[in-house]
Design brief:
By secondary structure, the chain is an all-alpha fold. It has helices at residues 6-20, 24-31, 42-55, 58-71, 76-89, 92-102, 110-122, 126-139, 143-151, 156-162, 166-169, 172-180.
């Protein structure tokens, strides 16, 4: 695939700016100026997915996420986009199933495991949720990821069971033990 021109990169930056301002419609208009082969460049498709997701245009986001996965199958971000789209477009079970099918190809990706933890919690699979969350924390030992987990509403069923305060006190298999205890 050819490199994007300076003008095309500018359109992407403008779209990103509109998104930051909370205006996905204007962001979409910026991306419409990119045509030809460049319109299918992974960077353009990634920004287009962000625009569609921000606007809640899940059917369009689904089409773009599938294209991203075909163009960049080694990119965990592409698969995460598709999972996030499926979550909103077809439901948590679809997102869970799709991501579960590719997670082994990305053994160092914490975000993919974090998303699986969220989906599992939403489905009431708290033990599995803990397992995926532990893996995510072990891959990315950051306070930022733990803070995200504490405030993520998708993990609420897990926090209802074990309490948010436990996250910084216990790690690894201890978290799983607390989640599985009655």
């Amino acid at each position: 695939m050819n490199a994007l021109t300076q003008a095309e990169r500018f359109q992407i930056e403008a779209a990103e700016g509109w998104l930051m301002l909370g205006n996905p419609q204007e962001a979409h208009e910026e991306l419409e100026h990119i045509s030809g082969e460049s319109a299918y460049h992974p960077t353009v498709l990634s920004m287009r997915w962000q625009v569609y997701a921000a606007a809640g245009w899940w059917e369009a986001a689904y089409v773009v996420s599938k294209a991203l996965c075909e163009l960049a199958p080694k990119s965990p971000a592409a698969w995460i986009c598709q999972a996030n789209t499926l979550r909103h477009y077809k439901g948590v079970v679809e997102a869970w199933s799709m991501l579960l099918g590719v997670v082994t190809k990305f053994d160092q990706d914490a975000v993919m495991r974090y998303n699986l933890a969220c989906y599992a919690a939403q489905m009431g699979l708290l033990e599995e949720s803990c397992g995926w969350l532990v893996q995510a924390f072990e891959l990315e030992e950051s306070t930022q990821l733990k803070l995200a987990a504490i405030y993520d509403p998708d993990l609420q069923p897990l926090w209802d069971k074990i309490g948010r305060d436990k996250l910084f006190e216990i790690t690894g298999h201890q978290l799983q033990k607390v989640a599985t205890s009655e």
